[in-house]
Amino acid sequence: MRRMTLPDRPLKGAWGVTALIFLFMLINFADKMVIGLAAKPIMEELKLSPEQFGLIGSAFFFVFPFAAVLVGFIANRVQARHTLLVMAAFWSLLQFPMLGAISFEALIACRVLLGAAEGPANPVATHAIYKWFPDSLRAVPTAVVAQGSAVGVIVAVPALNWIIVHHSWHWAFGALGIAGLLWSVLWFFFGREGTLVDPPVVAGAHGSAPIPYPRLLTCPSIVAVCCTGFASYWGLALGLTWFTPYLVEGLGFSQTAGGNLSVLPWVFGMVVVLAGGWISQRLKASGASSRVSRGVFASAAVILGGCILPFIGLTTDPALKLAILVAGTAIGSTIYVVIPMVVSELTPQPQRAAMLAIVNSIVTLGGVIAPFAMGVVVQDAATRLIGYDRGFTLLGGLLLAGGVIGLLFIRPEADRSRLAG
Fold it and tell me: What is the reported pTM?
């Protein structure tokens, strides 16, 4: 396959492939969301404590980061279209054991395997997209692909909640397995590999010279996006696992109302990410540095979310609590657009898939800890509501710390010069 470099425009067919990968991420996040949506009936059927359910939420992330790194290195050498197909088919098949009677231990095992299958999804999907768009035009397609997660929740939650209420939580998992297999068929026939080649970070005799991974991983900008992303992903993991239980158990909504209201953070987050990606790209196009258009812009939004969340424990009004939680967890979502762009800006293309995967793995470690930590906090509190409020206040502190680190240390231009030297 012939390679080409097109620095000023995307390749022909780029947006068609972007649409397919958008659907890929849509199903991927619906798979993650269903466990939180079905929390109450699962806990009732299996007689689980909050701590046990928190362990199920964390189990998804036990090997998630390690699988992402492994497959990231494979994606440096194997075409992304093949990797995406194998992942989608595997995770779809893992949904079907949920259709029968299942124990607590078997449910954890299925979530661990599902996490292994879905862990590499985001970095490999991003790597695939970046083979179609030059660096200056990546913010909007990155935001579109990232919003597969939000749209996955917005579209899937009403349908899955209806299935849970009128059939059972078992069939919610089965429906997602069928959707994943249908996407796999579409991708098999229409998925293609991009041919865009980035300019080298460090010039070598044969193009882009490699940079040792320890040097990349200790680069201040990459360390900073890992810290900011870790804090933000802590919030995302809580949203996937505990948002619906908070509405049902903490605030007293019914399963139907609580499930349907679970789309609110994702609707708000979708607007934030798409607008943030567009603003970031416009700032970059107008001559703003990556430090400003990517680092300062996204980190300030994360800090704002951290400032909002502590107010959740200062009110007793359920509607106001819901508004604070939605705004505080979603306002900093632009960081998910910024992370892969900063990593890509500093990484030679032959190493990009692996570095995206490594950074994604570090960021998603927040998902390993957050659901179980929230379960412990809720179980040890005087009431469920007090426990939830404490957990979300803790998230606010993490967002503040992560946002400040990003604001101070995401400096792609300076670090690219240092790496090139």
Answer: 0.69
